[in-house]
Design goal:
The structure is a single chain. By secondary structure, the chain is an alpha+beta fold. It folds into two domains: 231 residues, Amidase signature (AS) enzymes (Alpha-Beta Complex); 164 residues, Amidase signature (AS) enzymes (Alpha-Beta Complex). Helices cover 39% and strands 17% of the residues. It contains 15 helices and 17 strands. The strands form four sheets. The protein has an eleven-stranded mixed sheet with strand order 1-3-2-8-10-9-16-17-13-11-12. Strands 4-5 form a two-stranded antiparallel ribbon. Helix 2 packs antiparallel against helix 3, helix 4 packs across helix 7 and helix 10 runs antiparallel to helix 12. The longest helix is centred in the middle third of the chain and has 24 residues. The two termini are 15 Å apart.
Length: 459
């Protein structure tokens, strides 16, 4: 039996297509592992009651010579912010605990049409408004590398599901880092596409002008496969000739920011990975200044508060007591932001995007750590980083949130383990709508850095 924690979509697809490994056996094994791990890790809110039935149908198609895509007969875990016609969609809340959507989210529908089996709905930070995945209603999603630590969020359940091999891939949402943060902390690949590249139809919003959806998987090639299916394109990374394959890459690196704000443990792994990349790949490092990080962070927070309050207004009047108090208080804060302040924040966002594009004229990509700290312990609220006290939430968001405001694609790939055996992610970003180029660069770096072993909890 192939362990999904050790393989890739393309690797197992060959076995499934030839029926050397049957979809029913894959789903049965995944369900067994879920039942063994879910109490400890709190990965899923709902499991599909139809997963085996769907596997049987797709297996029959293979026997008849029909294969829909590389995902045919393979399990995908979906964050519980996405509509699914056959399972409730809670948004990680009890307000929506019995809500059964009339249809799938558009990206979920495309995955099903491609033959993917939606095995279940994964745990998340309530209404995606947080990055720890400490959910008071469905439990704390814990890190498979050390269960006393958080998974990160808000797409933590999907990242853990991929990490422990109970699915071949997962879906998440990312408004300020909610795909990349848990992917980095759990040692997998997480991708936030350019704003607007993937449909948000059928996805519970946090902030409509900043929200994105994307895949959480094991390899960069897995990103390409799932992205092609969800966008309707067919060109895979193995079929194209990359313009980045041989020529020198110019990589912007915010050295001062890293030296001042990234923990010693993460910084050591990051610089080691940069050394490997520059010695084995044709790259030039260019130091950049991004002193406007804090300005764009402040503008983004105003936008999120305002847009989330607008969406939640219908429940805040009558069901305010059913929210996690921490999430509710942040949403309520949006009610006090005036229209001029919100509009000004959007104007600042546009201005800094122009500044970023000007900086990127002579760069192919920006590289930096995904998260400046190791996965915090569940009980941690504040940490000391480089002799500075910083809240856990602030630290987790610090290096990811700007790329949502800029609308750029960004990816995290594993780049090593700390001395404490916790994963570290390398984040790469390009200009908006250079998604194909970004994946080519990330695949090149992945080839140098390699993959992490499976997490201790399943060894």
């Amino acid at each position: 039996m192939v362990d999904l924690a050790k393989t890739s979509i393309r690797g197992i697809h060959r076995e499934v297509r030839s029926l050397r490994i049957k979809p029913t056996k894959i789903i049965e094994e995944c369900l067994r592992r879920i039942h063994r791990l879910n109490d400890a890790l709190r990965i899923f809110i709902h499991l599909s009651e139809e997963a085996i039935k769907h596997a049987e149908y797709l297996e029959k198609e293979l026997e008849e010579g029909k294969c829909r895509s590389e995902l045919h007969g393979l399990p995908i875990a979906v964050k519980d912010a996405f509509y699914t016609y056959d399972m409730p969609t809670t948004g990680g809340s009890i307000i929506l605990k019995d809500y059964k959507p009339p249809k799938d989210a558009e990206v979920v529908r495309k995955l099903r049409d491609a033959g993917a089996i939606i095995i279940g709905k994964t745990n998340m930070h309530e209404f995606a408004f947080g990055v720890t995945n400490k959910n008071p209603h469905y439990g704390v999603t814990r890190n498979p590398w050390s269960i006393d630590r958080i998974s990160g969020g808000s797409s933590g359940g999907s990242a853990v599901a991929v990490s422990v091999g109970v699915c071949i891939g997962g879906l998440g949402t990312d408004t300020a880092g909610s795909i990349r943060i848990p992917s980095a902390l759990c040692g997998v690949v997480g991708y936030k596409p350019s704003n607007g590249l993937l449909s948000l139809d059928g996805v519970i919003p946090l902030s409509h002008s900043l929200d994105t959806v994307g895949p959480i998987v094991k390899t960069v090639d897995d990103v390409s496969i799932t992205l092609n299916i969800m966008t309707g394109k067919v060109l895979t990374s193995q079929e194209r000739v990359s313009e980045y394959e041989d020529r020198e890459l110019r990589l912007g690196l915010p050295r001062k920011l890293i030296e001042e704000w990234v923990s010693d443990e993460v910084e050591e792994v990051f610089w080691r990975s940069i050394g490997k990349i520059t010695s084995r790949s044709n790259c030039r490092i260019v130091d950049i200044e991004i002193e406007w990080f804090k300005t764009i962070s402040d503008a983004r927070y105003i936008i999120v508060l305002s847009e989330s309050a607008a969406f939640h207004l219908k429940w805040l009047r009558n069901r305010w007591s059913e929210y996690d108090p921490d999430v509710r208080d942040r949403i309520l804060g949006g009610l006090f932001i005036t229209a001029p302040v919100y509009i000004q924040a959007q104007m600042i966002r546009k201005s800094l995007k122009r500044k970023f594009l000007k900086m990127m004229k002579n760069l192919d990509a920006v590289i930096l750590p995904t998260v400046p700290i190791e996965a915090p312990r569940v009980e941690d609220e504040e940490l000391i980083v480089k002799n500075k006290k910083i809240g856990v939430r602030r630290a987790l968001l610090f290096l990811t949130e700007c790329f949502n405001s800029l609308g750029t694609p960004a990816i995290t790939i594993p780049c090593g383990l700390t001395k404490g055996n916790l994963p570290v992610g390398l984040q790469i970003a390009t200009k908006p709508y250079e998604d194909t180029q970004l994946l080519e660069i990330a695949e090149r770096f992945e080839g140098v850095l390699g993959r992490l072993p499976e997490p201790p909890i399943i060894r």
